[in-house]
Amino acid sequence: MIRALCCTFLLALPLRAQHLLVPMDDAQANHLKSYGIAFGALTDGVRSEWLLNYRGGSFLLPDLPGLRRAALLAGVSVEPVDEAGLGAIRREIADGNMDAVPLDKAPRIAVYTPPQSMPWDDAVTLALTYAGIPYTAIWDDDVLATDLSQFDWIHLHHEDFTGQQHKLFLGFRDAPWFVQARERDLGTARRHGLPDIPTLKKTVADRLRGFVERGGFLFAMCGATETIELAIAGKDVDIAGPATDGTPMDPDGDSRLAWARSFAIEGARLEFGGSVNAMSDIDGHQVNVPSRRQPLGTFTLFGFSAKFDPVATMLVQNHRAVLRDFYGVTTSFTRRTLKPGVTVLAHEEGAPWVKYIHGSLGRGSFTFLGGHDPEDPQHSIGAPPTDLALFPNSPGYRLILNNVLFPAARKRPLKT
Amino acid sequence: MRTALGALCALACVAAPLPAQRPVDPMPALISRALDHENAGRYREAALAWQAVIAAGSVMPGVYGLERVYAMTGDEEALLPLLDSLIPHHPRDGQLRAAQLRTLVAAGRNEDADAAFRTWRSLRDDDPAPYRDYARVLLFHNRAAAADSVLGEATSRLGSSRAFLLEAAQMRAALGRWPEAAEAWREMMREQPYYESAAVFSLGPAPADARDRVRTELVAGDAPIGARQALAFLELGWGQPRAAWRVLAGLPPTDTTVAVWRAFADEAEQQQAWPSVRDALVAVHAARRQPAVAERGAMAALRANDPATALTLARVARRSGEDVRAELLGIELDALARMGQGAEAERVLANAESAIGANGTRGFARTIAWAWIRAGNVEKARAALADAPLDADDAVAGWLALYEGDLATARRALRFGETNSSDAVQALALLTRTRAERSVEIGNAFLALAAGDSVAASDRFVRAASSVEDAASLLLTMAARLETARGADARALPLWTRVAESYATAPEAPEARLEWARALRRGGDLRGARGQLEHLILTYPTSALVPQARRELDALPAVRAESSS
Asked: Does domain A109-408 have CATH number 3.40.50.720?
């Protein structure tokens, strides 16, 4: 109640407080736009702090008129905090499993997204646009021909890096959008002197791997997670069926996959059935194979030590610990196929799969989140995009935006 | 869908064994056991049971059962050895051949499917079945381009494409070749008009920029009535009910046409497209002269805000009927009231008095009063109520007082009155807001509003604002709303501006800012619109309009993806 009054009368306060707290617990009216406020402050050169595990992962900003105005316009709840109040907050943080992480610099964001609109939405571009966070759209030509180090963060969504277009030829081979996408990719392959789409996509996947290895941060969702792993491990193996490249899959493909090169997965088995709409046994849910499809449950975010594992802690900041699961062409990752060093951020209790993982490769890191759209659990091809104005407090979309802000955190040596 | 199709086939097969086979015992117990296993999801047991059905001689039910079961377990190809063993015994059996094609295509064995199709085709040169079944299978698997090739080959080998019109229509729609699809559907319905629903389902997804060509093709030349009906229903689905009726309006009134008009009226009624319902029923009535149709048309006309047609149809229906019915009389009087024909309404009611009695007559007194109010004659309205005195708090009495400028009486009488019209809501808001006892300008404004003269009402509300100061911002807002509603932004904008700037603390100020922003946006001034929306959010943070303002702010050009190339 007191918090609500503070928010309501914020503009009426004659004197500015020294700080503004953006609460991220249930007192927050618009969690998703809160990330946009924090990001906008960084873009303007205003330093802020991410108070990990403090009231759902709140942000602490300086009390500037521009920030108050931006928060009010966006419908983001803020609470003025004076020095005494801040002292109390810092004491509470020091005493508990919490930490304050400085946010220094707005990350430069790229989203790997096709120039041609596809008949499905992209949760990340939806979240970025709604939160008001700018990004650069890149596609195959950009990945192959430009210096990716200009970006701090690259997002991948729904692409099939095995070059098989998620086997959608099974149901959509003559759909105009499918034909157009195939022709576009073939044209790109020819421009770069590559023989077919699988080779093009594997080359793109390898470039993205190099981006991470040199210190970049990669976030992938849905089918991009599974297929980039297969594409990288299968760089020198024919893992695409004849419908894509005219030649059968290498029958010894499973044994020839080079898992040492992949991000998080090892020992997965390829799907050899031409009519089976699955890529491998990485995904635990197999939504497009009726006889194997597993029902949706809920997944639980792990709690980490904020002081010792700040990175993992940042990625799971939320006002909910248990979230409703959602399908994608890759919904989850079977535990059996995870590399030992991978950090599991969220899992389904008792299930042989996990939902959300993080790890490092070279000087960079990656995060994979299974599923397509956190607020549309069974999003289908042709369905309209989710209107995030209807879900301003979406815990699932918060996971995406945690990843957007995570590269802004000042790098500190990990304590574990 | 595939499973459903299989289930239908299986049922048909149980009912009618293969013509080429000797009649066999369908072994209902065996089949029943297999279905039970299948329905319970015990697919391994179901497969064994269906194999037993086949072994017992009932071939096609067993094949269809196995096809469904294997589809559920992802073992589609397991059916192929069985089919390979059965087909040599029934080489011309189209059902087995079609099952083989379905299985091969579902398994992605496209070359084998082509070979199986060629083998079947070679059995008889003039048989369209192989082409038709293979094209259907390909279409079902969204391989419209491959289906196109098969149909093209069929046309060249058989010398005509007429046997494949249905498949061609579906194939072309799946390929997005909308005009050609429309042409095929039109020709299809020339011989089989009952396919109009399938045509609507197939052509409905045509994008907006392809619809004109679809329209042209569907009704080209002497198009069959089924094609016209399909286009009319498509237009309804595309949100063009007036265009929908125009497709059917000029047809000669045969029995078939009248049936189509009735079906159209039913469909348009579902969508509450009242002008089109009215027109369809008027046409039906002109052709068949049925009182029930006239009455239904009169009601549709009233809902379409067309009291003149409602009056005509109601009178036709009444003249045809034996007795005066209160429902029909009500429609007629309502139509007259809306047209402001108080004298005529009184005459009609007087003529009906012998049939409906004095009590019935008094029941319509309020309608008569409304008729006079619509005519702007408050005295006559009061006179109409003379034999049906109203309670002091009757809403009609309140309205009469309001029209006469007696705000105090109106305030008392309308306090518990009906509030389901926008006029009523506005009146109550105003009466609650002001403490003024009397205002002739306000009465005249509401009277103009009741008479449908929104320009005069707007002017009078503005004039009233200068004398009724404690409700000035509301009166100006009411005038501005009227101007905005009729699209007169040039007149509305100064009013919204005046409310927003001169009455910044009034309850109407946020609404004025929002409407000001909308008017600027409609005029292309996006920067100005953004400024007004931000002003609203920042100045009135607790207003109920703030969420809407935020939404409209988000909808203005904001963060955009930039190309890196």
From this structure: no
